[in-house]
Structure formats: C-alpha cells, structure tokens
UniProtKB/TrEMBL annotation:
InterPro entries: Cro/C1-type_HTH (IPR001387), Lambda_DNA-bd_dom_sf (IPR010982). GO terms for molecular function: DNA binding. It comes from the Bacteria. SUPFAM superfamilies: lambda repressor-like DNA-binding domains (SSF47413). It comes from Streptomyces agglomeratus. Residues 19-79 form the HTH cro/C1-type domain. This is HTH cro/C1-type domain-containing protein. CDD domains: HTH_XRE. The lineage of its organism: Bacteria, Bacillati, Actinomycetota, Actinomycetes, Kitasatosporales.
Length: 427
C-alpha cells in the first residue's frame, strides 16, 4: 500500500496576512498590538515590528512567535508553518520581481512598436476609393485602426502617445473635410473623429497639458453630437468632468451628471456602467457619500447586465475590476478605509506591472486608505511601490499622487520607513 503524504502548507496562511487578519479582527492598529505585546512580555517591543512582520520585511523569531501565540491563542506550530511559508514566498517574490523588472520595459517597447508598425500599414489618405470618394466601409476601417491605437494607452503614458493620436485625428479630419461621401458615412466619420479627439485629449491630460485636453474634448463633444451618437457625447462630457475635477473648475458634478443623462434608452450596459462610475467619482471627491454610493451601485448593476449588442470599443477596458477599483478609490476619498481596502486589493491582485501607470495610481489610493486605517508603515511601503512604478513613465499623474501621499505621511517622519521615503522623495 502506498503511503499517504500531506502538504505542510495545506490550510496555512503566510504569517503576514495571518497576523493582519487576527489583529484587525480585534479592531487593533499595529501600534496598539505592539503596545499589548510589550505589556505582555514586560519590556518594549521594537517600534514598527508588527508592520515588518505583516509585510514580510522581517519574520517573527521563535520568541516572538511564542508571544503571538499567547496573545491570539494560536498554536505555535501553526505560526511556525506560517513563517516557513512566508519565507518561501518571499524568496519567490524576489526572484519574480527581478525577472519582471528585466522583462517589463522590453514588453512595453515591443507592444508599442508592434502596434505602431501595424497602424502604419494603412494611412487615412489611402482609404479614398476613387478621387475624393469615400466608401461606406471607410469608417469601419478607421474604427479598427483607432482600436489598435487605443490599446497603447494600457502600457504607455500620454507623453508617448499624444503626437501619434493628434496626427491620426488630423488625418481623419482632413479626410472628412476633403472627401465626398453619403450622409451615413459622414456620421460614421464624425463618430471616429469624436473617438480620436477623446484619445488625443486623454493623452494630453495624462501628460499634464490641460488646455490641450480641453480643446480636444470640445472637438469630441461637437463631433459626437454631429454624429448623433449619445454614448460618445456622454463619454466626451465625462472626460470634461474629470478634467474639471483635476483643475479645480468646480463643474465636475454638472458635467458628469449631464454625461449620464445624455444616454439614450438603447445604450449598452457597459457605457452606463462607465458613466455611472465617473459620476460616483465626482460625488466622492465632493464629499457626497450617499450620492457616490448610489452611483456605484448603478455601475455595479450595469456591468453585470447582459446587453443585446456588444459595447463600443472605446469602453473595452470597463469591466468588474474597473468598477471595483473605482469603488475603492471613492471610499478612499471619503475616508472609509474598511470599504476601500478590500475592493482595491482584490482588483489590484490581477494588475500586471506592464500597466505601470494605472497600477501606481490605484496603489496610491490603497496607500491612502491604509493611512486612514492607522497602518502608517504599510501605507509607506505601498507608497514606495508607487514611486517604483512611476519611474520612467510619460505620465505626470502617478508621481503627483505619490507626492500627495508623501505630504500626508510627513507628520510621521519619526518612523524610520517614513523618514527614508521622505528622503527618497527629495531626489
């Protein structure tokens, strides 16, 4: 008879998540647990020890595990196995991070180059069928081309894509101005112009060119209305709402409300989810908790609704994870960390580092939520990760968010990890 074997890791959590769960179940901060452990053993526990255990920066030794066993009523053997698992995971994470850092920039470069090369095969001017005549199939071809351009935004910042997007917009606009086509084809062309203007506006915004972004968004709004496309019109207004929030124009809620109200009865559920998502953000950043909660509920319901037709390509990135991210960001802005943290952590677990800009941005709200929860050193560690991901990006937004977090952490500069991060931020 073959002997049965068991996996020592079965049913075991790594020590960091295990300790965090046990501590938070009792409603204690890291500092409070450190104080309780100090009282139990009769002399002070090293400041920040709990944070380092939970982040696996340092693993509890046998004496510390005995103390934790008595504090939480957990068998010492379970804690030993949790430490063993954490040590193995830490070694694997270090190896994976090294491999990923060696690979990530090559992957970004490859995707950017390959996409641009594919797009370069067809120029808008080559789509004229005879003289200045534009065939009915041209809007579809331009839509496919624009979709490929749009995917670049997943991996690179606006500083890298802006000129490419502007050239594309100029080419399509020239085609529409100089060509001869049917009324239906004209509406299709104006819809493509609206999409491309939104892309150019987004890239300008991402690179910090707010006036340029405003001009492109106004072009998108006019083109979408000329195309009689209410979904594109709503998206144009939602972009303007986000810009208003950034520059402090005070019209964000008005634009976001108008965006949602612009939608027709046959709008794809994914578009309704996107615009409700954007409305929730405007309410959250204005401190309107109940309104934000309602809009998030609308978005969550819509994203799980089955539509008769597929959504537009410009909303391809909107899924359940996007709604979860926005939910976490909204609750972080409203200083409700217990609602923000689970939503952000669950969705971020599926974000690859090649999406460095978005991952850095969303981690900054996770850091903010942990700081609101009193987890200062964990917040600091996440903020340091934001700095790591922000390096070399052609986007101003992640580093701007990192500096917001640095300012919030300044009152805690006496803690060694915070002090080190503040010194790094000076560079």
């Amino acid at each position: 008879m073959a002997m049965m074997t068991t996996n020592e890791d079965d049913g075991v959590e790594p020590i960091g998540p295990l300790l965090r769960r046990l501590r938070m179940a009792g409603g204690r901060t890291q500092e409070e647990l450190a104080a309780d452990l100090s009282a139990r053993r009769g002399y002070p526990l090293e400041q920040g020890a709990v944070s380092r255990w939970e982040t696996h920066e340092r693993l509890p030794d046998p004496a510390s595990r005995a103390l934790l066993s008595a504090e939480f009523g957990v068998p010492k053997e379970e804690l030993r196995r949790a430490v063993t698992l954490a040590r193995r995971l830490r070694r694997q994470e270090q190896k994976d991070q090294t491999d990923q850092e060696n690979d990530v920039f090559d992957r970004r470069g490859f995707m950017t180059a390959s996409t641009a090369a594919g797009i370069a095969l067809i120029q808008p001017s080559s789509l004229l069928s005879s003289g200045r005549r534009i065939g009915a199939d041209v809007p579809r071809q331009l839509s496919q081309r624009t979709a490929r351009l749009r995917r670049l935004d997943d991996f690179v910042g606006g500083g890298d894509t802006y000129r490419m997007y502007v050239r594309e917009l100029e080419g399509t606009t020239r085609l529409a101005d100089e060509g001869v086509y049917s009324e239906a084809t004209g509406r299709g062309l104006r819809g493509i112009i609206a999409e491309q203007a939104q892309l150019a506006g987004w890239a300008a915004y991402d690179a910090g060119n707010y006036e340029g972004a405003r001009g492109h968004y106004m072009t998108a709004l006019a083109a979408s209305r000329a195309a009689e496309n209410t979904a594109l019109e709503g998206n144009s207004l939602a972009f303007m709402a986000y810009l208003e929030w950034t520059v402090g124009g005070g019209s964000g809620i008005r634009f976001a409300t108008a965006a949602y109200e612009a939608l027709g009865s046959g709008t794809a559920p994914v578009v309704r989810a996107l615009l409700a998502d954007r409305l929730a953000w405007q309410h959250a950043t204005s401190g309107n908790g109940p309104e934000a909660d309602y809009a998030l509920g609308v978005a969550a319901e819509a994203i799980h609704e089955h539509g008769d037709e597929p959504g537009p390509d410009w909303a391809y990135w909107v899924d359940a994870d996007e709604i979860a991210i926005m939910t976490g960001r909204c609750w972080a802005e409203l200083h409700r960390p217990l609602r923000a943290i689970p939503a952000l952590e669950d969705a971020l677990a599926r974000y690859d580092d090649t999406r460095a800009r978005d991952k850095a941005l969303y981690l900054s709200w996770l850091a903010s939520a942990y700081l609101d929860a009193g987890e200062i050193e964990h917040s600091t560690a996440i903020t340091a990760r934001v700095f790591d991901l922000s390096e070399g990006l052609a986007s101003i937004r992640p580093m701007a968010r990192a500096r917001v977090m640095v300012k919030r952490l300044e009152p805690h500069r006496s803690l060694a990890p915070v002090g080190a991060l503040l010194e790094r931020a000076k560079g």
